[in-house]
Amino acid sequence: MYDFKNNEELRSFFNVNPELEPSQRFTLHNREEVVSFETMLNKHVETETHLSFHSLNLIRAFDYCMSLSENGRKLFAAILDLKITIAFLFIDAIKFAPDFNALNHRDGTNILEDESLFNKKMKMLHHNIDLAVRYRAFYDKFMGLNIMLLNPSKYEDYNNTIRGRKNKFQSLVKGLLDDKSISSLIEQVTYLDNNYRTPEVHKTGSMRTWVLTSQDLFLDKQLNLMNYFNWVLGYADWVDTVIADNKEKSLRFIEQNNKV
After folding, report:
1. CB neighbour list of residue 82: distance below 8 Å, 6 or more residues apart
2. CA distance linking residue 18 with residue 22, whole number of Å
3. First to last CA, the chain
4. Please, which pLDDT band fits residue 219 given cuts at 50, 70 and 90?
5. What ranges make up the beta strands (E) of the chain?
6. Which of 227, 206, 228 is nearest to 217 (CA)?
7. Taking the model in full, what pTM does it have?
8. At what angle do helices 115-150 and 228-259 cross, to 10 degrees?
9. What is the pLDDT of residues 138-181, one digit of tens each?
């Protein structure tokens, strides 16, 4: 059993009072704070990557969530979390993308005979593993958000599912999303699990066997991993569209009720 005694000593040393924790947690209280947060987050991503970043509109999401009669705060928390995940993926995918030299180095060169290439490959392996884990986190959060948007009464069923979330997701959104979209998403998650995330997190790892080689196998696997970035941005646009459509419906509903 883990001994928490050391934690108590550290708290005492730094004068930390855990009873104050709930009141000290970061939260966005109103629309003005949401505007400030989104502006600063987008700017942070642009500073890190030198590219414009506007995926997933938090302000519009906040306006929509606050118009809901129930679970608006919970839905906005999920969207905020997904926005941060997408921002980090954007930074990682752009800032740490393999340079063309390393990508195009498929001549069978032994990395043990080329220290410069060895360093590039190790950097690539390092960030590939981080990306695989973060991509998988995105998909779990994205599937959960789908259920909150399309079948909110069943969200806890999904959230409480420890194993078999992919199957649970399919059953909860069947008839709410077209079969082709569901099938495509599940295929992406399954491929990510089988080829990248599961071997690195739960087994002895497999990325090193293809990242550290200079053969066609490397480029094929690397391009497949890099393609997840395009899917993430596409799904972010989809969330924006759903929120915009739902917001319009909500406004029309309010207007019609006010006329009565």
Report:
1. 56, 138, 141, 142, 145, 236, 239
2. 9
3. 64
4. confident
5. none
6. 206
7. 0.86
8. 20
9. 999 999 999 999 999 999 999 888 888 899 999 999 999 999 99
